[in-house]
Every structure is written in structure tokens, then in C-alpha cells.
Amino acid sequence: MKKLLFVLAGLSVVLLTACNTIEGMGKDIQKAGESIEGAAAKKK
């Protein structure tokens, strides 16, 4: 039973970390897109 709880706790930590990483990556991609839009608007 202790092994099962340990595995579930470890899995939870991994999943929560992955969610934070994906969220951060999405924000970075959004900022990059905004920079590209700004550069394109300046060229017009």
C-alpha cells in the first residue's frame, strides 16, 4: 500500500510540473507571436 501511495504522489508531482512547463511555454510562444506582429506592423 505504501508503494502505491508513493507512486501516485510521484506521478502527481510529475503531472503538475508538466502543466506548469506547458503553461510557461505557451506564454513564451504568445510573447514571440506578439513581437512578430509588432515588427510586421512597423513595416507597413
Automatic annotation (TrEMBL):
Signal peptide (UniProt feature, chain positions): 1-18
One Pfam short name: Entericidin
Annotated InterPro entries: Entericidin
Regions that span the bilayer: none
Keywords (A to Z) from UniProt: Cell membrane, Lipoprotein, Membrane, Palmitate, Signal
Coiled-coil stretches: none
Family membership: Belongs to the EcnA/EcnB lipoprotein family.
Name of this chain's protein: Entericidin A/B family lipoprotein
Organism: Ideonella oryzae
